[in-house]
Amino acid sequence: MNEDLRQALDFLSPASCTYQEWLTVGMGLKQAGLPVTMWEQWSAQDGSRYHKGECSRKWESFRGSASPVTENSIFKIARDHGWSGSEGHALDWDDVIDAPTDGRVVDPHWLDVPDLAIPDDNTPWNPAAQLIEYLRALYEPSDHVAYVTESFMDKDRRRPTKGHWDRTAEQLIAELEKCGGELGKVLGDYDPEVGAWICFNPVNGQGRRDADITEYRYALVESDEQDLNRQAAILHQLELPLAALVYSGKKSLHAIVKVDAPDYTEYRKRVDYLYEVCKKNGLVIDQQNRNPSRLSRMPGITRNGQKQFLLETNTGKSCWQEWRDWIESATDDLPETESLSDSWDAMPELAPPLIAGVLRQGHKMLLAGPSKAGKSFALIELCICIAEGVPWLGRFDCAQGKVLYINLELDRASCLHRFRDVYDALGLPPGHVGNIDLWNLRGASVPMDKLAPKLIRRAAKKDYIAIILDPIYKVITGDENSADQMAKFCNQFDLVCRELGCAVIYCHHHSKGAQGGKRSMDRASGSGVFARDPDAMLDMTELEPTDAIREQLRNRAACAACTVALDRRGLEDAYTREDALSRARMLEICKENLSLSDRRALDTAIEQASQKATARTAWRIEGTLREFARFDPVNLWFDYPVHKLDDGLLEDLQPESDYKTLGARGAAKRWSDKGREDQAKKRSRELDSAFEACTMDGEVTVYAMAQYMDLKPRTVKNRLKADGGYWIDGEKVGRKEPGYKG
């Protein structure tokens, strides 16, 4: 038998099921290929309604249909009766995980079922005293009371007539005290086969319709589908604010519940709430009893030889508000408050880092950036780095463990090839490739509130330390610009983190327009919830390299190609480390040491390497962190298919801003051609001043200029190269003379 189905049946009590639900369970079990004995054993738990052999007879009549009842119907019944599904039932595509409580306070496995003191023929009683106690419990002395003692035949059953409503509770009590126990003297004769009824809300003395109700004090909760003792147990464990509890003389209890509504509209809301709580806690109630003028069984009356008996009055919570507050507090699923002093001397351990200095295990991280930033590649790199236990982006150490990558965008083949390509580009052997699981959902993705339960069920026993979703626009629930809808959406990630104890990492796109003038946390598209919800937010913005930086990239590519060509011929000793930094010097060495054919091949290699180098895009990652101090911005080159750490070329660049973020005057001044020229001239003057100042001490070095300018040596070196008017030999700096070639 399916373990999920077994757990659903273990939760579901046959005593709490209606006849139709009982049949549905049988049909679902048969459709699932299970034996009739399974239905028999389950049904036998309800001793008051179980009849041996009945299951077998019904079983033979279940012959299926075009739309058969399946085991999913059993799951639905169990959930309708309060099963949360945490036991591990088979969730389907329509299931939703939501943070609010399911409203259940009654545990059917720990239900204290009493032996209810139902009166029999030998039970002494005073009918008038029964009714007097009932009237005093429900009515004010001046309230008019509607009751019915006569009935008429309607089809195959007797129904109450309109009845009487001309007397107040005070008048009725006075007459009952003098009747000598003969209720007929006060109420008129009633049919002992049918009994009598009473309206539990006061009326205006002109009728007993809803329009005649003067105060909406009470609602009727009646169940005739369950064992009486079980009904009483659930009513008491729910602590319903009962004005009275009456035995109907047959198979149900009538609970008169205090709702104290100010008007009819509020009465309907409170009755709906009451019935929903009862339903979720396993009480199968008659849904037709909602209206305030409904009749209930009158205590003190004999019905077909059974006593309509008042069992208790004023039990449970004292009033509606107290009961509702109790229900809300008992089912809110929130942790209790705690005193700081309890943990002061024994603080709990913090979750270990998943990404050093950025994210802890069990926390959430968002990677945001514009289109074509290589966000998906960056997340694949992160998967691999976690699996292999190596630094991510060459900068952030990662804990080693199992990771799940949820692919929502690529087809399966493309996703698999992309992982292999990234492994190769990183130069990593797939020593722990088994630590990576893929869940390819392109074309099968659903909103996150429906995906979360399926994810939790599949990942429950996998011991993942991280789950990565790429990208989230495929699973967003609601309007991404709505704060409340996005808060609910992000809550799904909290549920996954809490249930699985792993980190959840996801990526999102930037809003439209230039981003340089915005704070890093405000660049993601949609509601600000995206920036404020995750424990770590990493933001990628594009940098536009200058012509001088592009030229340096081409020079480096040429030097690298020359080095490969010389090394291939065993000429490693033909050049020095300093030579390998100068394109002109390496070309000269290659000309002296390589054959013509090798030089032609080298020209092709240099051209290809230069094109690849200049095709790279530049990016800056900034972090907004909750658990760690903010790190310095990290500059990267996206050299398809991986990101590589920059060695200082990009340090002085700033992301592009637009007029909206900087203001028209600021943006125009900063990013117009004239502004760029002015900035270059200013930096050139600063270099001139520093060079002249350092010349006074003799030899000029990068370190001396850096100290004078209060900058990092690497920054000064980059500015010198970008300026083009200086030569650098190791750490020595000099001005280029006219005709200088270096």
Written description of the protein model:
The chain has 742 residues and is an alpha+beta fold. It folds into five domains: 3-97; 127-330, RepB DNA-primase, N-terminal domain (Alpha-Beta Plaits); 353-543, Rossmann fold, CATH 3.40.50; 545-615, no CATH class; 672-735, Arc Repressor Mutant, subunit A. Helices cover 39% and strands 17% of the residues. The protein has 25 helices and 23 strands. The strands form six sheets. A nine-stranded mixed beta sheet has the order 15-14-16-17-13-18-19-20-21, sandwiched between helices. Strands 5-7-6-10-9 form a five-stranded antiparallel beta sheet. Strands 1-4-8 form a three-stranded antiparallel beta sheet, with no helix packed on it. Mean pLDDT is 85; it is low at 86-101, 512-518 and 658-671.
In short:
The chain is 39% helix and 17% strand. By secondary structure, it is of the alpha+beta class.
The share of residues in extended strands comes to 15-25%
CATH topology of the largest domain: Alpha-Beta Plaits
Strand order of the largest sheet: 15-14-16-17-13-18-19-20-21
Write down the overall geometry.
elongated
Distance between the termini: 81 Å
Helix count equals: 25
Give the total of beta strands. 23
Summarize the biggest pleated sheet: 9 strands, mixed
Q: How would you name the CATH homologous superfamily of the largest domain? A: RepB DNA-primase, N-terminal domain
